[in-house]
């Protein structure tokens, strides 16, 4: 979040000094206020362009799950559609049609029994999609409880969930019930999840591709435990699958894994089109198995854009360009193309994980064999440097590799995580390995660690380890 007050400490001044080469004469521009007058467009472009050179190289950002590479044709289509408002379906009916086609394609990919009757929409990302899914779960619970809906609704999930679920619980007044990590289990336990369920539970969130380590949570086992709970107690608790990453990986690489609408208890699924859907940032998807899973009283109908149209979203106006790019990718790659891309990502991840483990100082937490994401730690016997030292040293070479501590009850475990995305090749992986080999001798010579959790930086992307309050079981 941007600071509310500009920070003027250090070498920065309140003004920008523009080189006369760009503006024909020296120009001073205020940093934190609108300039008094206009500026030549070439000068304005150069000023902004030069400042952005200080940003990191997106291709070397191994912290983010978000797509950082796209084909020129996809970029061209996005530029051609930059002015199109996704909400204005009457003015841009074909953009709306392509959104609907993407929903149907995802419904089939996720084995909906009747894809034509699946309800779905695009969103600005998985965070909005998660909010919508949570709202649907809460409203369904209220409808089921009727006049008895006098308790506080709760949502059961692993403590490893992305921060959007913590936000949902806070913003929409739902009690979060977190299943803690235990030992070598770093995500949801089906039995522990069911123990936290009661008559006020609106649902259980199962994550396919944990932000912390890339692992899949056992959705089918959670469903089986909830089936047993209903048989014993009558409690009917639905599942939402947060497939921000894995829902665009498992269908192509793990076809026998049952996690989706094949399980009757799965009410809804979200994914990030801008992650392994291979679209540039700004796109998520939310799907419900049928109209019953999305209460109609959550859907608004507006007509002031010309023509009546339903809308269920937290945002109103938003760009249609990312939806167009998603449809382009679906056409361009097809099932086999997506399988090839995701297979390559997983191959790079597992190979790189193995080579990092072979360096000596590191121990793998996961190996990239599910989502192409893996986490590793410094071996316990090494006491003179930390994962935070490693992260800082790699940043000197341009690599952004996040270091962070796990949440309760494993805050003792600090790791590095690498996300392999389309565009991160075997060659780039080898270059990363070479830089790791370069920094290790210097770190081995340290007498003690130079950095700890407070030096971790701010690019763990959704992880808030150590800040969550664990609910009592």
From TrEMBL:
The modification N6-(pyridoxal phosphate)lysine is found at residue 275. It is an enzyme of class 4 (lyase). One of its GO terms (cellular component) is cytosol. Its EC number is 4.1.1.15. It comes from Actinoallomurus bryophytorum. InterPro entries: Glutamate_decarboxylase, PyrdxlP-dep_de-COase, PyrdxlP-dep_Trfase, PyrdxlP-dep_Trfase_major. GO terms for molecular function: aromatic-L-amino-acid decarboxylase activity; glutamate decarboxylase activity; pyridoxal phosphate binding. This is Glutamate decarboxylase. Residues 1-20 are annotated as: Disordered. Its cofactor is pyridoxal 5'-phosphate. Keywords: Decarboxylase, Lyase, Pyridoxal phosphate. Belongs to the group II decarboxylase family. GO terms for biological process: L-glutamate catabolic process. SUPFAM superfamilies: PLP-dependent transferases (SSF53383).
């Amino acid at each position: 979040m941007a600071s509310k007050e500009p920070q003027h400490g250090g070498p920065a001044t309140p003004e920008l000094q523009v080189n006369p080469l760009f503006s024909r004469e020296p120009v001073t521009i205020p940093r934190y206020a609108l300039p008094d007058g206009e500026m030549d467009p070439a000068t304005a472009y150069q000023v902004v362009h030069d400042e952005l050179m200080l940003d990191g190289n997106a291709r070397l950002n191994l912290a983010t799950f978000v797509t950082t590479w796209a084909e020129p044709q996809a970029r061209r289509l996005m530029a051609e559609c930059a002015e199109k408002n996704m909400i204005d379906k009457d003015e841009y009916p074909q953009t709306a049609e392509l959104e609907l086609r993407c929903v149907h394609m995802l419904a089939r990919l996720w084995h909906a029994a009747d894809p034509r009757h699946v309800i779905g929409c695009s969103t600005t990302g998985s965070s909005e999609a998660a909010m919508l899914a949570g709202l649907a779960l809460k409203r369904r619970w209220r409808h089921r409880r009727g006049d008895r809906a006098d308790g506080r609704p709760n949502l059961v999930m692993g403590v490893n969930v992305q921060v959007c679920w913590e936000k949902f619980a806070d913003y929409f007044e739902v009690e979060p019930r977190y299943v803690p990590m235990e030992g070598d289990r770093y995500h949801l336990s089906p039995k522990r999840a069911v123990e936290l369920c009661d008559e006020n539970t609106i649902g259980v969130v199962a994550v396919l591709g944990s932000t912390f380590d890339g692992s899949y949570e056992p959705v089918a086992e959670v469903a089986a435990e909830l089936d047993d709970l209903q048989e014993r107690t009558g409690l009917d608790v639905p599942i939402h699958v947060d497939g921000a990453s894995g829902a665009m990986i498992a269908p192509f690489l793990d076809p026998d894994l049952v996690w989706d609408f094949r399980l009757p208890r799965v009410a809804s699924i979200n994914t990030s089109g801008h992650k392994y859907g291979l679209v540039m940032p700004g796109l998520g998807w939310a799907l419900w198995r049928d109209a019953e899973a999305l209460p109609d009283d959550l859907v608004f109908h507006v007509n002031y854009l010309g023509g009546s149209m339903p809308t269920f979203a937290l945002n109103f106006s938003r760009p249609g360009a990312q939806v167009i790019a998603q449809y382009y990718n679906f056409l361009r790659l097809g099932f086999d193309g997506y399988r090839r891309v995701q297979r390559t990502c997983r191959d790079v991840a597992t190979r790189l994980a193995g080579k990092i483990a072979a360096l000596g100082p590191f121990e793998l937490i996961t190996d990239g064999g599910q989502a192409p994401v893996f986490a590793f730690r410094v071996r316990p016997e090494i006491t003179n440097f930390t994962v935070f030292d490693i992260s800082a040293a790699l940043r000197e070479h341009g690599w952004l590799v996040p270091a962070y501590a796990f949440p309760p009850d494993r805050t003792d475990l600090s790791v590095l995580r690498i996300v392999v995305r389309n565009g991160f090749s075997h060659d780039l992986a080898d270059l990363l390995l070479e830089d790791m080999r370069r920094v290790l001798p210097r770190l081995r010579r340290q007498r003690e660690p130079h950095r700890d959790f407070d030096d971790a930086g701010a690019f763990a992307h959704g992880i808030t380890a150590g800040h969550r309050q664990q609910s009592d079981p």
